[in-house]
Design a protein that fits this description.
single chain, alpha/beta, Rossmann fold, 4-stranded parallel sheet, two-stranded antiparallel ribbon, 6 strands, globular, binds 2'-deoxyadenosine-5'-diphosphate, nucleotide-binding, AMP kinase activity, ATP-binding
Length: 147
C-alpha cells in the first residue's frame, strides 16, 4: 500500500497550488482539509475574534481516515498535530519568508489580527551572528506583544 503524504505549512505558502499540480503529475489523490470541512460542515462553533469557523478536529479525522484509507494521497492542511502520525509516510514542510507571506495573505483578505497570529516566524540559525539576530527578533516580538 502506498502511504499518504502531507504538505503542511502556514496559510499562503503554496500548499494548494503545488499539491494540486503534484496530484495531477503523480497520480496521487489530493485532499484539502479546509474544503473537506466546508463540504461536510465539520465545524463545532465559530470564532468571532478571528472571524472563522472552528474545525471539529475529531470529525475531520474520522472523515479523512475514510478518504485516505487506500493510501496514495496528498493531504493539504496548515498543521498536522491532530493527525495520527502513523498515517503519514513523509512530511514536506513548505516555507515562505515572513515578508512575502504577509503580502500574500493580505492579498487574500486576511485581517490584521489573523495575519499577526497566523504567521510562523522563521529564524535562521546557521552561523554565530544568527544567534544575536534571532534573540533580538524574538525580544522585539515579545516587546511588541506586551504593549
Ligand atoms: P496555501 O494553500 O498554502 O494557503 P496557495 O497554494 O493558495 O497557498 O498559494 C497562495 C498564493 O501564493 C497563490 O496566489 C499562489 C501564490 N504562491 C504560492 N507559492 C508561490 C511561490 N513559490 N511563488 C510565487 N507565488 C506563490
Amino acid at each position: 500500500m502506498l502511504l499518504p503524504n502531507i504538505l503542511p505549512g502556514t496559510p499562503g505558502v503554496g500548499k494548494t497550488i503545488q499539491g494540486e499540480e503534484l496530484a495531477s503529475r503523480s497520480g496521487l489523490k489530493y485532499f484539502n482539509v479546509g474544503d473537506l470541512a466546508q463540504e461536510g460542515q465539520l465545524y463545532n462553533g465559530y470564532n468571532e475574534e478571528y472571524d472563522c469557523p472552528i474545525l471539529d478536529e475529531e470529525r475531520v479525522v474520522v472523515e479523512l481516515k475514510n478518504q485516505i484509507r487506500e493510501g496514495g494521497t496528498i493531504v493539504d492542511y496548515h498543521g498536522c498535530d491532530f493527525f495520527p502520525e502513523r498515517w503519514f509516510h513523509v512530511v514536506f514542510v513548505l516555507r515562505t519568508d515572513n515578508s512575502v507571506l504577509y503580502k500574500r495573505l493580505e492579498t487574500r483578505g486576511y485581517g490584521e489580527k489573523k495575519l499577526k497570529e497566523e504567521i510562523v516566524h522563521q529564524l535562521s540559525s546557521n552561523k554565530p551572528e544568527d544567534l544575536k539576530d534571532n534573540i533580538n527578533q524574538i525580544l522585539k516580538w515579545v516587546k511588541d506583544h506586551n504593549t
